Amino acid sequence: MAASVRQSTPFLPPLWTALSCLFVLLALASNASCLPAASSVTMVDFTFDQHRKRMDPTIVTSADGTNTTVLNPSTNEVIAQGPATDGGGVDFSVPAIIWLAFVFTVGAPLALAGIRLWRVTTGAGVGLAATVCVWAAFINTVSAQGLSDLVLTIISLAAFAIGFLIGVLNIGRMAGILLLGVLGGFSIGIRIVLLRPGLLIPIYVANWFLLAVFMVIGLGVMLYRQRFGLVSACAAVGSFLVALGIDLILQKQSGMSAGLRFLFDRNSSHYLAIVHLGYHPPLITQILLGVSLGAIPVLAFAQHKIFRGPFRPTSTEFDSDSMSFTEENVALNQEKEPETRTATPAKGSLLSSRFS
Predict the structure, then answer these.
(1) Which of 83, 81, 84 is CA-nearest to residue 70?
(2) HEC string of 139-157?
(3) Per DSSP, what are the bridge partners of residue 59?
(4) What pLDDT score was predicted for residue 195?
(5) Engineered SS bond to 110: which of 87, 238, 312, 319, CB 3.0-4.6 Å?
(6) Does pLDDT of 320 surpass 50?
């Protein structure tokens, strides 16, 4: 079984690269049929059913087109709207620079040597999962006034610090490995979903269903073949963060940042700035998404070849290449058990003592 897995591994890099190129071609071809912009009329109902949220507000635009209001369709009350920067800052403001430093600091080591960093890798798995959850919770619940970008950035990074500390400790090692597998699949799914304007699938909820499938696949790979899952997840998460950093430099908040906000943010106070404006990725963003997907098998194979030792720096008698997650845990537990051997007297000494 292990031999068959090793034999099939060389075919995975060209397969991933071919799929990445296919997704990029589909995304570029869809530019000709992207969603039309909403016209400025007196009363415009939001008709993009593919971007459903908790409620479908009504957009009211003044006759001269200078004032736009969002109304609750059930109560006809005005829904106050906020800027919806979601902690990303504007251009190269302080929050934007902090996020730039963060994605490169975490992403580059994972992409290049995640399989060798052990505690740093498990800490990053828990920390990144906590960051995503805390950030998504805040942007979907704040009011129109909201929080300043700097405050939201500090809160998100504080969540990463706490999660990183938990993942570094022994109690968080297993959680870090499993969460890294989930994040690996999640990062691949996000890039595929963000390739097209208005997201990959016209129905908004269907995109999240696709992301859930990728997360389950990432978790399953990590459970079934831990080393293959680790190098793949490290390469996937690391390449995603590095691509996000490059896109922030080139496109600022109008590229992948806008796509992430469009995917995660369904706050009614951000409706006008997020859902109504839609998501229209620039060409350079689509190229970066495709290139980062194609880089996953290359980075994973490079880590596998360069760092041949086991993920945990403890020598075992098992081959780490063919070992599953459960098998390695059993091996590690066996190492921890003290060797208790009762000394048995030799047969000759027993005879001599009997006849003495």
Answers:
(1) 81
(2) HCCCCCCCCCHHHHHHHHH
(3) 44, 70
(4) 92
(5) 238
(6) no
How far apart (Å, rounded) are the C-alpha atoms in residues 217 and 199?
A: 21
Q: What pLDDT is recorded for position 53?
A: 41
- The closest alpha carbon to 121, from 267, 255, 1, 238, belongs to 238
pLDDT tens digits, 276-303:
888 999 999 999 999 999 999 999 999 9
Q: What pTM, to 2 d.p., does this model score?
A: 0.71
Query: What is the Rg, in whole angstroms, of the alpha carbon atoms belonging to the chain?
Result: 26
Answer whether 105's CB lies under 8 Å from 233's CB.
Answer: no
Quote the distance between the C-alpha of residue 26 and its chain's center.
22
CA 84/CA 228 separation, integer angstroms: 39
Q: Give just the sign of the alpha carbon dihedral 232, 233, 237, 240.
A: positive
Q: How far apart are CA 290 and CA 303, in angstroms?
A: 21
Contacts of 320 (CB under 8 A, 6+ apart): 227, 309, 310, 311, 328
